[in-house]
Design goal:
Blueprint lengths: L1 H7 L2 H29 L9 H19 L10 H16 L7 H19 L6 H16 L7 E4 L12 H7 L13 H11 L11 E6 L2 H11 L10 E8 L11 H19 L2 E7 L4 H11 L5 E11 L4 E4 L14
Antiparallel strand pairs: 1-6, 2-3, 3-5, 4-5
Helix pairs in contact: 3-4, 3-5, 4-5, 5-6, 8-10, 9-11
Length: 335
């Protein structure tokens, strides 16, 4: 019967029926995915060990970024200092393991925050004093070298092309402040070309890359993006997107993000290989921000945002957050 119906049915009708079938599948796909995501946003989930660890990782990293500035501003990062203080208290009150490496790292970053102020003989915020008095014993016991910030300079990048892959990956850091020297565009183009080796679904190569050099356009883009405050505009800003025109079935609705993420990491490593400093900046936009960015950079609706990458030459003695990495045995399972 199906064969008969298909045979007598006009091809135009079959095309539209296929579309409505895909429409339903995509709606169900994202409804179920959204439902699963909402579970982790429930108030009852906020004090789980999984959520508490993620909060501490986030708070610690934001606090690190606050102290990893060439022109450090004492007393900054008050909001995140309050957050990390509250979450450390909650971690203790809920009876979680105080030897958890994520918790220990958070204490180490707090210790680094204090050290950074002491280095410039600056007064610590009142909020810190109250918190420190409460957890002084725990903070004093942690290694000061675990969290905080470190320094990188051009001398560490000069032999990047001679490094093994392992050495290159380990030495790569997120750099947010750059030299005033203009970028060698040949290096940038070489990195872009190298990243072309990134695999993509069925070799469809849906990546789209915008290289933004105009300072005013960089500033406007970063204002919408909202995650680069406190830093000067980078010499170059890259925007990675992926074009959904490459995909043809409901099951591929999220493939753009997978392939876009793969390409972005390849590009970051390629920039490191070319001795350029870089940092990825997320594009997790509200619909309002997404519309504004599409209008600013003339991005069609068929393309999805992957991320921005700020790029520049590494300056001498540039601070960067240490960005603690959890032990592999905390997230790897063998079957």
């Amino acid at each position: 019967m199906k064969k008969i119906i298909k045979k007598v049915m006009p091809s135009g009708v079959r095309v539209w029926l296929r579309f409505f079938k895909n429409w339903i599948e995509v709606r169900v796909l994202f409804y179920n995915e959204g439902t699963r995501f909402l579970k982790v946003l429930k108030p009852t989930h906020q004090r789980s060990i999984e959520r508490m660890r993620e909060k501490l990782l986030l708070d610690a990293h934001v606090l690190e970024k606050g102290i990893a500035h060439v022109e450090f501003k004492p007393g900054s990062s008050i909001r995140v200092l309050r957050n990390i203080s509250e979450n450390i208290r909650n971690f203790n009150e809920l009876g979680f393991d105080l030897s958890d490496p994520v918790y220990v790292n958070a204490l180490s970053v707090v210790k680094a925050y204090r050290s950074r102020h002491n280095q410039v003989h600056a007064k610590l915020p009142v909020e810190f004093g109250k918190f420190f008095d409460e957890f002084e014993d725990q903070i004093e016991k942690v290694a000061p070298s675990l969290g905080g910030y470190d320094l990188v300079d051009t001398s560490t990048k000069t032999n990047n092309k001679a490094k093994t892959y392992k050495e290159l990956v380990i030495s790569r850091t997120s750099i947010r402040e750059y030299s005033n020297r203009p970028i060698d565009l040949d290096k940038l183009e070489s990195a872009i070309s190298l990243a072309q080796k990134t695999p993509s679904a069925s070799n469809r190569q849906m990546i789209r890359l915008r290289v933004i050099e105009k300072k005013e356009l960089i500033l406007q883009s970063l204002k919408i993006q909202g995650g680069f405050g406190g830093y000067k505009a980078p010499p170059v800003l890259l925007l990675v997107t992926a074009d959904n025109n490459a995909f043809m079935a409901p099951g591929e609705a999220r493939e753009a993000y997978v392939d876009g993420g793969l390409y972005s990491m390849s590009l970051l490593n390629a920039l490191e290989y070319e001795q350029l400093g870089a940092v990825s900046l997320n594009t997790m936009f509200s619909e309002k921000k997404a519309r504004a960015m599409r209008k600013l950079l003339d991005i069609p609706d068929t393309e999805v945002f992957i991320l921005f990458i700020a790029v520049g030459n590494v300056d001498d003695k540039t601070p960067y957050p240490k960005s603690y990495r959890v032990p592999t045995n905390s997230f790897v399972k063998y079957y």
